[in-house]
Structures are given as structure tokens and as C-alpha cells.
């Protein structure tokens, strides 16, 4: 595999397209109008076509102006149709962008006779052709598409930097923004113009379909990973840059491994974006699927351990000894055992407790160690303090005390236990007359 | 505490009743002929109001009475079919900087990636001005407002990780930093815990003591006498408006909440059904 100047320009174009889409698309995600990205990326087509027909060339400024006009037109039409038809916004978007897109396709078919433009390039992009149209900048040949993307990126960056707080307020709380003199409707239209110009500039690289992935997926990924706006934008742009670079490398290296020719960089880029998104969905700290599963498992282990140690502490109490000793069968069989019918769960928890050094297995029975006995007494103490608490409250019947306390005992840390204890200063027994460990 | 409230309430009543005869500049909120319609069906009908300054005014009425719409229409957030709104004698559009707004808590997305402090600082955006970042003096101001509502410890917490009551408190802190003269609050008491409710009442009293005028959309009729000194009873039209002691009586309540459709209601209903 040879890396050529062509590859460098393709990656530069892909990175610029990704970054500029991610930056502006983030605000669509935050504003919960991601579908507008879908709508506008399609609806700009007639704008481009008209610009082609009027100027007779693929002139950058003309395309951007055409896009901006159609961007506003789309937003206005969606609003007007939504307002007068009382259709949901999604339906009015569906009507507007498909009709505009269709008009655009027809116009481009017509224009194609005398302008160098192909519908399939608009739909799917042609990043491989980007390095072929060079313009001289300070004596260097720079692809025209790259210049256009860099220009739009600069516009987006300037707007986001200058209007950072205005965009934040208008996308978070448009009504307050309007009462503060920051017209949220105007900010909305500004955003739509930027989205339209961005999609047009990115067309050459990714086409009008995959540009939606570039607009939305980086922001969606950042949504899973960050809780602040600036990091959100940075993560979003970083994700798109990584996807652009990896996407192109994958496009030229992966298919040959299986004996095929190179695949499309744009398609590969969007695929990498999807992989990054699912990676974040699975592995995001705190919010990720895996992190949550681990949390849930940890909670179940901790509750199970506390239940087992509580049973052993009760056994110790009954035999008036320091250590509690029960066999697995007894642990399952005692009155109100949470392990009744859960042989496997109990085995897992006992194994966990042995590793933790809270119980030892000797002569067919489980015995609490000093540490395990202490933990068990704490559980028992929490349990009986809570029973006392509900009993004092007078709203829970004696028969219902146990189940309530059984739940709360697992969520009672030292502080809470001491506060409970203080409330019943001097009380040494629970409502049923059993001693509260640590209070005697 | 209670004495202080009731004595200030008494003086409020005097100014409330005398407020009617004086010049328009001394009327905090003046609304004339305000009508709002959604798809031909009126939601607010010919609303007239003259509310004196330095009162805490409750806005009550049944569901669908147009309470939130009244606030939004005053603030130009929904289009009016007709009518005019003046704040201290001048049209609302020229007096925006005097007005603070606390929207309903459900109106925003609490998953949005900002902290409590950043949310409160939004109240300062007009003062900060376009294009400028939220600099350190403004952040300090926002922090001190958070302290005022007992939320300083949560300044850097993402807003979805706050309880409903805490979210309502930071909404109020955001309004406080606006340093407005007239506040409109849409159901600040909805779904808050007892201590937040107390904190909000404390804030309302402080605002009134500082000469501010506060409008509060409210649901709980039992607390009307305790919280407000002025009351607007609304059911599409103004049923009654005035000092609580004068207007909060069973006859007005019946007229506000009474189930039977009046002749006018039936006419309006028919208008809404007419194809447009």
C-alpha cells in the first residue's frame, strides 16, 4: 500500500469536512433538531443546482449563497407547514426536504448537459476526485474543495467562538433567550444557514447522504461522553477527525486484505463513526452499558454478601457465640432467607465472601471470621434500627417492619447508622425485643 | 417572621388600592384588551390588568385557563391577536431589561451539558452583552446567587444530577441575577420539596421588600392567602384581580372554577369549531 500526495489531500479534505460538520451538527443534537440536518442536507440540492445553472460553473461562493438561501427557505417552510397543517414537525420536514430534493435532482439532470456535475457525486460524494481540481495558493496547488471546506470551517469556528454563550442559551432555553433580547428564532435561522453551507462544502467529500452521519454522529457520541458544553464540542470534533483519518486508512488497507480493491473513503469514514459511537455507548464511564452492568453486578454482590453475613450474625446470636456458623443448606433454609431457591447465587456469594476473608469454609459449614462477624453485626444493627424507626413512625405494621428494614439496611452507611442510633438514644432492643448490636 | 409578613402585607394592600388612581408610570403592569388565539380559538379573551408595584401577585385558575399563556403573551413569546402591554408606563419591548422570567421547569432539557453555575450565569447574558464570554466577575455574581438559594455546593454539578427542588432553585437564582423590577414565574412551586417551597417564599418576600413586583402562576388555592398579597383570578378572561383580601372569596372562586359553561364560552367554543 503506497501513501501518496493524493491520500494526504483526501485525508485533509475528510478531516476538514468532518470537523466542520461535527462543530455545527453538535448544536443540532443539543437543540434536539437532528432531523433538521437530514432535511437541510437534502433540501440544499436545488440551491446548488440553481447556482450551477446561473454561474455555469462549480463556483464555491455561488454554491454557498445558494445553500444559505435554501437553508432558510427549508426552515421557514417546515415551520409554516407545521403551523398551518398542525402536522408534527417530523412530517412537515419529510414533506419539505423530499420535495426540494426531488426538484434539485431534476434540475441537476438538466444542468448536467452543460455543467460538469453528476447526481451520483452529489449523493455519495467523490472525495477521490478532490485532489484533481487544484487552485494555486501562494504558488502551491491546493484542491478547490479543500479551500471551500477550510473557508466554511473558519466561518463556523468564528460563529461558535463569538456566539458561544448566545448559542448555548438559545439552544437550551429559547424563551428566556428571547426575553433577554437574544432572538432565539434568529439564532435558529443562523444555525440553519450554517448547516446548509456546511453540507454543501462537505458534499464533495461525503455526499448528501453520509453528510448526515457527519453532522449527527460526532455530537451523539459526545453526548454520551461529556457533561459540559466546551468538552462536548471538542470531543465531537475530535471524534470526527479520528473517523476521517482512520476511515481513509481503513478504506485503502482493509479491502485489499480480503483481496478486494479500495473502498470509498466516505463510506468507510461513516462506518468508523458508527463504531466509535457504539464504543461510547458500551464503554462510556458511568453512563455506558458496561459501566452500568458492572454497577448493577456490584450492587447485587454487595446486597447478597450483606444478606449472608446478616443470616450468619443471627445464627451467632441464637447460639450466643462470637462467630456464626451455617451450612449452605441452612443459609437457604432459615426463615425468610433471601437465598431460598437460589443455590447458584448463594454459592457465588459465599465464594466472594471467602475471597474477601469474611467467611471460612470448614467441616461442611461456613464460619464468619472476626471481620465477617463485625460486618454481620453492622447489618443487623442497621436492620433493627430501621425497624425501630418505622415502629416509632407508627405507620408500618409489625409484620411489615422486616421487609422494609431488609431493603434499607443495604443502603445504610456509618453516618446514617449513627444518626439513626442517636435518634433512639438509650434504646437497646428493636420493636420485637431483640438486642440492637452496638447499643448495649 | 410571621408578624413581619403580615405587616408588610397590610402596607401592600394600601399601596395596592391607592395604586389605581395615580399616573401610569406607577403601574408595574398595564395590560389592555389582550387577546390570544390558537387556530381561531381564543385562549385569552380581552384581558385588562393594572397591577401596582411591590406586590407578589398570584395568578390562579383551572387547567387550560390560560395562566402560562398570559405570562407568555405579556413577554411577547406568543403572538397576540390584539392588545397592548406596558411595564411602568412604557411598551414591553422598550422595557425588556426591567423584566425577569422563570419558565416552567419542564420547558427545558435538563440533560443539556451545562452546570448549575453556567445556567445561573445565563441570567446575566444581557448585562454581559453580545459576543463577550462570561468572565470571572460574572461567574462570581452567579455563584453568590447560588449561595442565596442554598445551592453553592452544587455550582459545578451537571444540571440533570439535581433534584426537582434544586433545579427550581437554580432557575430562581438565574432570575435573581437578572436584577429585574418585574418578575414572571411560571409555577415555581410545582413539584418541589417542603424546604425549597420555604426557600422560594423567602425569596418572594425579599423581592417584595426590595420593591420588586412578582407574578406567580400558582395551583394551590390553600396557600393563596399566605403567599400573595395580590391575586389575578383567570379563566380565559380575568374573573377578578385585586388585593387578595378583596377578591379571594367564594363567589369569585365559583366564577373562576365553576364547571358550567357560560353563554360566552359556548360562543367561543363554536368559533373554534368553525372551519377557517
What does the secondary structure layout of this molecule look like, with pairings?
The complex is a heterodimer of chains A (440) and B (276).
Chain A: H1 5-30, H2 34-43, H3 45-55, H4 60-85, H5 89-111, H6 119-124, E1 134-137, E2 140-143, H7 144-162, H8 164-172, H9 174-179, H10 184-225, H11 229-257, H12 265-283, H13 289-318, E3 325-326, H14 328-333, H15 343-356, E4 359-362, E5 365-368, H16 370-393, H17 398-408, H18 414-423
Antiparallel strand pairs in A: 1-2, 3-5, 4-5
Helix pairs in contact in A: 1-2, 1-7, 1-10, 1-11, 2-4, 2-5, 2-10, 3-4, 3-5, 4-5, 4-10, 7-10, 8-10, 10-11, 10-12, 11-12, 13-15, 13-16, 16-17
Chain B: H1 2-18, E1 29-38, E2 41-51, E3 56-60, H2 67-74, E4 82-87, E5 90-91, H3 92-95, E6 99-102, H4 116-121, H5 125-128, H6 136-148, H7 164-178, E7 182-185, H8 194-209, E8 213-217, H9 224-227, E9 230-235, E10 237-243, H10 244-247, H11 250-257, H12 263-273
Parallel strand pairs in B: 3-8, 3-9, 6-7, 7-8
Antiparallel strand pairs in B: 1-2, 1-4, 4-5, 9-10
Give an overview of the whole structure:
The complex is a heterodimer of chains A (440) and B (276). Chain A is 73% helix and 4% strand. Chain A has 440 residues and is mainly α. Chain A folds into 2 domains: 5-284, Orthogonal Bundle (ABC transporter involved in vitamin B12 uptake, BtuC); 292-423, Arc Repressor Mutant, subunit A, CATH 1.10.10. In chain A, the strands form 2 sheets. Chain A has a 3-stranded antiparallel beta sheet. Chain A has a two-stranded antiparallel sheet with strand order 1-2. Chain A starts with a helix and ends in a 17-residue tail after the last helix. The model of chain A has no long low-confidence stretch (mean pLDDT 89). Chain B has 12 helices and 10 strands. In chain B, a hairpin with a 2-residue loop joins strand 4 and strand 5. In chain B, the strands form 2 sheets. In chain B, strands 6-7-8-3-9-10 form a 6-stranded mixed beta sheet, with helices on both faces. In chain B, helix 6 crosses helix 7. Chain B has 276 residues and is of the alpha/beta class. Chain B has one domain (2-273): P-loop containing nucleotide triphosphate hydrolases (Rossmann fold), CATH 3.40.50.300. Chain B is 40% helix and 22% strand. Chain B is globular. The chains are: A mainly alpha (440), B alpha/beta (276).
Amino acid at each position: 500500500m503506497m501513501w501518496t500526495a493524493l491520500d494526504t489531500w483526501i485525508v485533509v479534505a475528510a478531516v476538514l469536512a468532518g470537523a466542520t460538520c461535527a462543530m455545527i451538527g453538535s448544536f443540532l443534537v443539543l437543540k434536539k433538531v437532528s432531523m433538521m440536518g437530514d432535511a437541510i442536507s437534502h433540501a440544499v440540492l436545488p440551491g446548488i443546482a440553481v447556482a450551477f445553472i446561473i454561474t455555469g460553473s462549480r463556483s464555491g461562493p455561488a454554491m454557498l449563497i445558494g445553500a444559505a438561501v435554501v437553508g432558510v427557505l427549508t426552515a421557514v417552510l417546515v415551520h409554516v407547514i407545521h403551523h398551518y397543517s398542525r402536522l408534527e414537525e417530523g412530517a412537515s420536514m419529510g414533506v419539505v426536504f423530499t420535495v426540494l430534493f426531488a426538484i434539485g435532482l431534476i434540475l441537476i439532470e438538466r444542468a448536467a448537459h452543460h455543467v460538469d456535475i453528476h447526481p451520483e457525486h452529489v449523493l455519495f460524494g467523490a472525495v477521490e476526485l478532490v485532489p484533481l481540481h487544484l487552485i494555486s495558493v501562494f504558488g502551491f496547488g491546493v484542491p478547490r474543495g479543500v479551500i471551500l471546506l477550510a473557508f466554511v470551517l473558519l466561518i463556523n469556528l468564528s460563529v461558535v467562538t463569538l456566539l458561544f454563550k448566545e448559542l448555548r442559551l438559545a439552544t437550551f432555553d429559547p424563551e428566556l433567550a428571547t426575553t433577554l433580547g437574544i432572538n432565539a428564532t434568529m439564532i435558529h435561522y443562523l444555525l440553519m444557514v450554517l448547516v446548509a453551507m456546511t453540507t454543501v462544502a462537505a458534499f464533495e467529500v461525503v455526499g448528501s447522504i453520509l453528510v448526515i452521519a457527519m453532522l449527527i454522529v460526532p455530537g451523539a457520541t459526545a453526548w454520551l461522553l461529556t457533561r459540559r458544553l466546551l468538552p462536548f464540542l471538542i470531543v465531537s470534533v475530535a471524534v470526527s477527525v479520528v473517523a476521517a483519518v482512520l476511515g481513509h486508512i481503513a478504506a485503502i488497507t482493509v479491502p485489499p486484505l480480503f483481496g478486494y480493491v479500495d473502498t470509498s473513503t466516505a463510506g468507510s469514514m461513516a462506518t468508523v463513526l458508527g463504531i466509535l459511537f457504539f464504543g461510547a455507548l458500551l464503554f462510556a464511564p458511568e453512563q455506558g452499558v458496561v459501566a452500568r452492568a458492572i454497577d448493577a453486578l456490584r450492587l447485587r454482590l454487595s446486597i447478597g454478601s450483606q444478606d449472608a453475613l446478616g443470616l450468619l450474625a443471627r445464627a451467632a446470636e441464637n447460639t450466643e457465640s462470637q462467630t456464626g456458623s451455617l451450612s449452605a443448606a441452612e443459609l437457604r433454609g432459615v426463615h425468610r432467607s433471601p437465598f431460598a431457591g437460589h443455590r447458584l447465587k448463594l454459592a457465588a456469594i459465599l465464594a466472594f465472601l471467602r475471597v474477601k476473608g469474611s467467611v471460612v469454609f470448614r467441616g461442611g459449614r461456613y464460619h464468619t471470621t472476626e471481620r465477617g462477624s463485625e460486618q454481620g453485626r453492622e447489618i443487623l444493627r442497621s436492620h433493627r434500627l430501621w425497624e425501630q424507626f418505622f415502629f416509632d413512625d407508627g405507620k408500618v405494621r409489625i409484620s411489615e417492619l422486616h421487609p422494609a428494614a431488609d431493603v434499607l439496611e443495604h443502603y445504610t452507611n456509618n453516618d446514617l447508622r449513627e444518626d439513626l442510633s442517636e435518634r433512639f438514644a438509650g434504646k437497646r432492643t428493636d420493636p420485637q425485643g431483640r438486642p440492637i448490636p452496638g447499643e448495649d | 417572621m410571621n408578624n413581619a409578613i403580615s405587616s408588610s402585607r397590610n402596607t401592600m394592600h394600601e399601596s395596592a388600592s391607592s395604586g389605581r388612581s395615580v399616573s401610569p408610570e406607577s403601574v408595574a403592569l398595564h395590560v389592555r384588551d389582550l387577546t390570544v388565539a390558537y387556530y381561531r380559538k381564543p385562549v385569552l379573551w380581552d384581558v385588562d390588568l393594572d397591577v401596582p408595584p411591590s406586590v407578589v401577585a398570584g395568578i390562579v385558575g383551572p387547567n387550560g385557563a390560560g395562566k402560562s399563556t398570559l405570562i407568555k403573551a405579556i413577554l411577547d413569546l406568543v403572538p397576540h391577536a390584539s392588545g397592548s402591554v406596558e411595564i411602568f408606563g412604557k411598551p414591553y419591548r422598550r422595557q425588556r431589561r426591567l423584566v425577569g422570567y422563570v419558565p416552567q421547569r419542564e420547558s427545558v432539557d435538563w440533560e443539556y451539558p451545562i452546570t448549575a453555575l453556567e445556567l445561573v450565569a445565563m441570567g446575566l447574558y444581557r448585562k454581559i452583552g453580545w459576543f463577550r464570554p462570561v468572565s470571572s466577575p460574572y461567574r462570581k455574581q452567579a455563584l453568590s446567587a447560588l449561595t442565596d438559594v442554598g445551592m453553592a455546593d452544587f455550582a459545578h454539578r451537571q444540571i440533570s444530577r439535581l433534584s426537582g427542588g434544586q433545579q427550581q432553585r437554580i432557575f430562581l437564582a438565574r432570575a435573581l441575577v437578572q436584577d429585574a423590577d418585574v418578575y414572571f414565574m411560571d409555577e415555581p412551586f410545582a413539584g418541589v420539596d417542603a424546604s425549597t417551597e420555604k426557600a422560594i417564599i423567602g425569596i418572594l418576600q425579599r423581592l417584595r421588600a426590595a420593591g420588586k413586583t412578582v407574578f406567580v402562576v400558582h395551583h394551590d388555592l390553600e396557600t393563596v392567602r399566605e403567599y400573595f398579597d395580590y391575586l389575578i383570578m383567570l379563566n380565559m378572561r380575568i374573573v377578578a384581580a385585586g388585593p387578595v383580601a378583596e377578591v379571594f372569596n367564594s363567589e369569585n372562586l365559583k366564577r373562576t372554577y365553576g364547571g358550567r359553561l357560560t353563554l360566552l364560552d359556548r360562543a367561543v367554543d363554536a368559533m373554534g369549531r368553525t372551519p377557517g
